[in-house]
Amino acid sequence: MRTTTRGARVNTRIQWSLDLVRELTRKELKVRYRNSFLGYVWSVASPAAQAMVYFFAFKVIVRIAVEDYGLFLIAGLFTWQWFANSLTVCTGVFLNNASLIKKVAFPRETLPLASVLNDGLHFALSLPVIAVVAALYGVWPRLSWLYGLPILVCLQFLLILGFGLLVSSVNLFFRDLERLVTILLSIVFYATPIIYRMDMVPERFRTLLFLNPMTPLVVNYQNLLLHGTFQWGMAGLSLAYGLIWLGIGWWVFSRLRWRFAEAL
Amino acid sequence: MSLGEIRVDHVSKAYPQYFKLTAGFKSFLFHLPSALESMRHAHFEALHDISFTVAPGESLGIIGHNGAGKSTMLSLLAGVMLPSEGQVSTSGRIAPVLELGAGFHPDLSGEENVVLNAVILGLTRQEALERLNDIVAFSELGEFIHQPIRTYSSGMLVRLGFSVAIHTSPDILLIDEVLAVGDADFQKKSRERILDLRRHGVSMVLVSHAMETVRAVCDKAIWIEHGRVQAAGSVGEVVDAYECPK
Fold first, then answer.
1. CB A148 within 8 A of CB A221
2. Shortest CB distance from B102 goes to which of A12, A22, A100?
């Protein structure tokens, strides 16, 4: 058993927790931009390059029957990028901060939280780029974007944080998870309607695809950005997935957190 | 409990041995029954039935040979691990003096790292910024504070880490060896600062192999060997016993 009596008042503790998350996120941002000449461009360049490759492969060669395919790809790929990047970074986040975890009793959840926020911020910053691409396709910003996008970003944040807590904690005990996450991400990528449209999927596989928690999010983003329609039902499903995975992630994290220092 | 107090009551710490798991899925799956069995039984007892108290303003030295369990004791005090048995109670803010730049990011400047580290150790950002000048002044880094810390020497890192820790207004300071690094002047200065903090009621736990530091800084000491207390008492008695075992 361990008891710790602290002197600090409750509002100081809350202020401190906020500061801690802010400083850790700020650190991630600084580190990313410190040694990079083009900085922000890189966070957009990677999904944009992917979009061009898929556009060439599927629009030019395969002649896929999806209208505004470039915008369609961008909507899905930018969303996916946040998910994939955060999970990859989160997997190693406790391992990379081993010296702190072994010495200081700060709230461990702030580490995955900060890296999810960092990539989330980059996603938010890339939304104007999506808007520019949309304008090229003759789609102008709509009123529904004003409430739709913030809601989707929040829902996605819940989901990614849940997965982030899960993989970051488990990876300390099963180091192979790092490789497994890489493989799973590439499988789940194709199980998400990013390069194809949901209605192209044979009926019997559609339900299966909706077991993938990224599916309702991506579909919602696509419809919102291409047609300005926000699907509340999809958002409800996303909320359910977000809460479920956050619950699982938090449960696993809180069962393992006292063993972190021992496993490092 | 009053601020700065530490109570360690019949504490034991056994580590489950994770080697089968960290070795990867494959070996775990291939040896599933034996792996599960070993998970249940393979324990390494790092500490056995340790008890001591530290009153506010008191300072305790923990001595012993390598692998005796000193660092495990410090981890339990820092609150990063739970004891398997017994109870560890502390009161107030605990500041560990981190080893060479732990938690520092090499690409960030000394100043940026100071603020980050101070916040991790429990200050709000506002408090960290208010104390920045004092921290930099004490570390004697001068203009280097604006350079990325990958350019720092190990002495400079220790000075900075120590300076951050003592400026977080800790009630309990945990010091693990680090003071042996740094030049003679800084060692003298940090030792004086430690004595000064002690006069102001800060409790300390010092783990060290440098017996003269232990003698100079601590009131009392425990000598741990193979996870058990070999001797405990005033610093003079314990260090004498450690240096010339009968």
1. no
2. A100
